[in-house]
Amino acid sequence: MSDIDSETDPDTGDAVDAEPETDADTGANRGARRWDDSILEVRNLDAGYGDLQILSDVDLDVRPGEYVTIVGPNGAGKSTLMKSVFGLTNRMDGSVTFGGSDITDTVPEEIIYEGIGYVPQNDNVFANLSVQENLEMGAYILDETPEDALETVYDRFPILRERREQKAGTMSGGQRQMLAMGRTLMLDPDLLLLDEPSAGLAPDLVDDMFDRIDRINDDGTAILMVEQNAKEALRRCDRGYVLVDGRNRYEDSGVELLADQGVRQDFLGG
Ligand SMILES: Nc1ncnc2c1ncn2[C@@H]1O[C@H](COP(=O)(O)OP(=O)(O)OP(=O)(O)O)[C@@H](O)[C@H]1O
């Protein structure tokens, strides 16, 4: 694990205004770096469901156009962290800021106006609606369907154009995942939250899904992704967080996390 001992990011020269604490026994950094140009800033967040607290003192940053992955064991709170950014949990303490606006207490219906799109892991399409109707629903907050956004989605996922009249419920898991992503892209978000986009996909479709996410990111959309397929996710992303028991455990570039012995041993199967 790289020590973060300066006030400046060595890669970019940007200011870093906090250094993570390093655990003397495990070598894990328990905090996370903070940048002054982040579009998403999660600070000291405690959150959960009702009175049940899942996240404790979590920090997370996403910078413009960055591709960030959250990995960690089952039940660590990865999905809860993502839901907390999108206003779907009880945020008990700390803050969430996006593009300079405090969205700690903002509801999802308003968060989409801020430029955040969320693709949940399950139940993410309207089964009884056609592909095209699903995509149109993605832009329901606008007076008219943005035809250019619709064409961009169809260009990204040509199978959706082919099947535009088909009921979403009759499509395969991979196609539904593309539809859910496409629907969220209809509003051209600045930040796309993806909860386990490879879950349930046949192995030969997983790479294809990751390639599509790479392209969305290459075109400028920042990505925050939770993934069980940790090695592949870390290989693809710019930066990653390892969450354990609802707390930050490691934070670093994907490459550094993949190379870190502690991360490999405890979370990546050696
Ligand atoms: N709606 C909910 N109400 C109450 N507890 C919940 C709810 N959703 C999740 N939890 C609990 O919160 C904890 C963290 O769950 P979460 O889904 O965030 O973990 P995760 O790291 O994403 O796990 P996995 O990799 O298994 O999806 C778990 O103990 C889970 O049972």
UniProtKB/TrEMBL annotation:
Keyword Nucleotide-binding (UniProt): yes
Region (Disordered): 1-30
GO biological process, one term: L-amino acid transport
Amino acid composition bias (Acidic residues), ranges on this chain: 1-24
Domain of life: Archaea
SMART domains xref list: AAA
Gene3D superfamilies on file: P-loop containing nucleotide triphosphate hydrolases (3.40.50.300)
Residues covered by the ABC transporter domain: 40-270
InterPro entries linked to this entry: AAA+_ATPase, ABC_transporter-like_ATP-bd, ABC_transporter-like_CS, BCAA_Transport_ATP-bd_LivF, P-loop_NTPase
Keywords carried by this UniProt record: Amino-acid transport, ATP-binding, Nucleotide-binding, Transport
Family: Belongs to the ABC transporter superfamily.
Gene from which this protein is expressed: livF1
Pfam families xref list: ABC_tran
Protein name per Swiss-Prot or TrEMBL: ABC-type transport system ATP-binding protein (Probable substrate branched-chain amino acids)
GO molecular function, one term: ATP hydrolysis activity
Keyword Calcium: no
